[in-house]
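Following up on my earlier thread - several people asked me to post the actual chain instead of describing it. Fair enough. Here it is, all 289 residues.
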Amino acid sequence: MKITLGPISYCWEKDKVQAFYEKAAQSQVHSVYLGETVCSRRREVKLNDYLAIARQLKAAGKEVILSTMALIEAQSEIGELRKYIDNGEFIIEANDMAAVHYACEAKLPFICGPSINNYNRASLDILHKMGMVRFVMPYELSKDWLTKVIENKPEFDIEVMGHGYMPLAHSARCFTAKHFGLRKDNCDTICKTHPKGMLAQTQEDQPLLRLNGIQTQSASYVDLISEIPAMQTLGVNYFRVSPTALSSIELADELCRTLAKQQTPQSQSCSQSCNGYWFNQAGFNQVSS
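Reply from S.P.:
Thanks for posting it. Predicted structure:
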């Protein structure tokens, strides 16, 4: 099993993004995803910046994947998507079916991202024929579901997001802008003031969701580190760490060292973590394996 770093979901300052990937280049992580996946109004880091970072990561021996937007809303975003497809150097993580279409048209191998609703083996086999080389399981699915899907070993690789806040939904409305009384089209990129999103609580002050612009995430972070041995037995090829801070690289690096020594990784589960979906339960549950 190899460890991957997923794309940054938040609107970080450009200097912080560059520092993050400079540190990633020095890590033992196998694959690094990069690109804006949430909102096209986040213009701190542009495609040319991502391509420069990608070349630096490639020079450091990393597999680099460009991640595309999960919700396409405008013709200009289609134009930007085409630029990702036509980059000429790196494969993509397709996070919506428009990206799949254009990648297939360009005969570019692609990774099927978790925001595409794939719920059966038949659809995955069709995508494989279209050029899919890796499938990232949607967050709400379980170990039992995955077991049935890969019991007849597929010709594509499997990746599971095992650590980080789970994106649960995307909307045409921007929740962060609305919270501050701003229009989405004139939002001043206010989400950059919340580098881990905004925590939404119930009336009983229980953490419920995390608002990240047009994206809704889980309030608790998923932690499936203790399930890595079970994933290896199933045949999962990649374990994804979704970045929340620079410390995410340290976590990913430690997992790489642990697996290289053939040791059992230790979960960091606590009151702020969850793993319910993996066990076919409510996602916010923390279940003992």
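Residues 259 and 265 are 7 Å apart (CA to CA). That should answer part of your original question.
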